[in-house]
Amino acid sequence: MSDFDSNPFADPEIDHPFQDPSVTQVRQAAPPGLEEYNPFTDAKPTRMAPKAAAPTINTQPAIMKPTEEPPAYSQSQPQDQSGVAAELLRRQEELEKKAAELDRREREMQSLSASGGKKNNWPPLPEKFPVGPCFYHDITVDIPVEFQKTVKIMYYLWMFHTGTLLANMLGCLAWFCVDAVRGVDFGLSILWFILFTPCSFICWYRPLYGAFRIDSSFRFFAFFFVYICQFGIYVLQCIGITSWGASGWISALTGLNRSVPVGIIMLLIAALFTAEAVLSLIMFKKVHGMYRTTGASFAKAQQEFATGVMSNKTVQTAAATAASRAAQGGFKEQI
Fold first, then answer.
1. Cβ neighbours of residue 199 under 8 Å, at least 6 residues apart?
2. How confident is residue 324, by pLDDT bands cut at 50, 70 and 90?
3. How far, in Å, CA of 171 to CA of 178, rounded?
4. How wide is the angle at C-alpha 93 spanned by C-alphas 149 and 151, nearest 5°?
5. How far apart are CA 164 and CA 275, in angstroms?
6. Could you give the 3-state DSSP secondary structure of residue 111?
7. Is the pTM of this model over 0.85?
8. What is the DSSP string of 149-203?
């Protein structure tokens, strides 16, 4: 009966239609994911992502860096701390001195305002002396801080000049004692001491003091003019021409031929005159450099001079008198 159930027209070698070799070849050549493709859905066939390579594991052991060792203890640290402490103490002392100076100046200003103005305190003379002080002199009060050092040096230079003139007078006296012909030098040395001591203070130190105090161009020019002449006198005294009343180098060598001790004294005085001339030249250059930074000029000096002359009561009185006399003379001529 099985023969009647089979299909007489079927290929006895093919049991299933999809077992055909052509169909099997197409199915094997189909791209992956085609079997899961469903035409009735919008989803796209998913592809398998390639597997990432597994990370390589470092099998070396971890190495920790050693920490820096602390610096070895040394004795310099306490010394540095002591030095810093000493510096702080020094600064504190300086601040205390400045505070005390400011308090002193404030009390002086208060006393001056209470007494009605500044009182002359130079030269410092005793109260019972018949002649009182002629000028008010206080560098810390009148002079700005940046110029105080220069003014103090010039004041000390003036004192050095006075001391040198006194030593010159004593040297000429010693020279006159060993040589009676040198009476002229001794007399002139006394004259130079009496004349140059106050004149140098009034003619070049006071103008310099006032120039820095009120920033006056006219006083700067007055100082420069007089101080150049003073420097020329220093040079002549340093040379020491005989019969000029100066124990310079020429006079000292002449006195050395007469008496060795007197000659040595005069050589020391000549060295003082030389040092005075050199220091004067250095300070002149320094003051001139500071003058150029203050903004002073010759035009300002002329303006200050004209203003000072016109504001002087004596000049005003003389001008008014001359004008009235000229007017009276013209009126008489017309009559």
1. none
2. low
3. 11
4. 10
5. 10
6. helix
7. no
8. HHHHHHHHHHHHHHHHHHHHHHHHHHHHHH-GGGHHHHHHHHHHHHHHHHHHIII
